[in-house]
Amino acid sequence: MNFSDIFIHFMMFIIPMLFAITLHEAAHGYIAKIRGDKTAYLMGRVSLNPIRHIDPLGTIILPTAMFLLGTGFLFGWAKPVPVNFNQLKKPKIDTILVAIAGPLANLVMAVGWLLLWKYVPNFGFHQMAQFGIILNLMLMVFNLLPIPPLDGSRIISAILPYKAALKYNALERWGFLIVLVLLFIPIGQSNLLAMILIPIINKLLLTLQWLFL
C-alpha cells in the first residue's frame, strides 16, 4: 500500500470519527440547554464545528495511533462539554438525559451510516460508511462504561444515593488510568478492553442490521 492509498484510507476513517465525536458532544450541550443549563451553549459548545470539541490526545493522537497500529478497535473522546448540574430543572433525571444524549447521538449516526451504505448505490465511499457504523457503535459502548467520567458513570451517579455518588465520582481522577490498564491487559492476541467492548458492539450491529436492512 503506497502513501496515497494510506492517506485515502486514513481520511475514510478520520471524517466519520470527527462527526462521531463532534455530534456526541454537541448533543450533550444541546440537551443541557433544553433542560435549563446554558453553560455549554454560551461557550459555543453546542456546535457542529469539530474544532470546538477537539481534544488533541483523545480526538487525534490516540485514535490515529490505534488505527495505525491495527489494535482491532478504536475509541476516543473530545473535550468534555461543561454542564452545571445545579442549573438543570430536575438535576437527577436531567443528568441522565444529558449523559445519555451523546451515546444516543452515536447510535443515530450508526443507523445513518448503515442506511447510507445499504440504500445509496451511487455513494462512492462505502468504506467510509463502514467505518462510520463501527466507530459510532464503539464510541457509544465505550462511553456507556461505568468508569468516571464516562457517560455511563454519570447515569449511575445520578441513581446512587448522595454519599455513595460522592465516593463513586471520586474515582474520576483515576478514570483515564483505569481505561489504560484495561487497554494494556493482554487477553490472547487482544486486550481486556476489546474483549469487553467487541461482543457488545457485534450484537448491536446484528440488531441494527436486522432492524434496518
Descriptive account of the structure:
- The chain has a two-stranded antiparallel sheet.
- A hairpin with a 2-residue loop joins strand 1 (186-187) and strand 2 (190-191).
- It has 213 residues and is mainly alpha-helical.
- The longest helix has 32 residues, at 3-34.
- It has helices at 3-34, 39-42, 56-69, 91-119, 126-143, 151-159, 162-169, 175-184, 192-212; strands at residues 186-187, 190-191.
- The two termini are 33 Å apart.
- The model has no long low-confidence stretch (mean pLDDT 88).
The proportion of strand residues reads under 5%
Along the chain, the helix and strand elements come as HHHHHHHHEEH
Q: Which stretches of 5+ consecutive residues score pLDDT under 50?
A: none
Coarse structural class: mainly alpha
Mean of residue pLDDT values: 88
Largest sheet: 2 strands, antiparallel
Give the helix tally. 9
**What does the overall shape look like?**
globular
Multimerization state: single chain
- Record the strand order, biggest sheet: 1-2
Structural features:
213 residues; mainly alpha; two-stranded antiparallel ribbon; 2 strands
Give a short summary of the structure.
The protein has 213 residues and is mostly helical. Helix content is 68%, strand content 2%.
Spell out the blueprint of helices and strands.
Layout: H1 3-34, H2 39-42, H3 56-69, H4 91-119, H5 126-143, H6 151-159, H7 162-169, H8 175-184, E1 186-187, E2 190-191, H9 192-212
Antiparallel strand pairs: 1-2
Helix pairs in contact: 1-4, 1-5, 4-5, 4-6, 5-9, 6-7
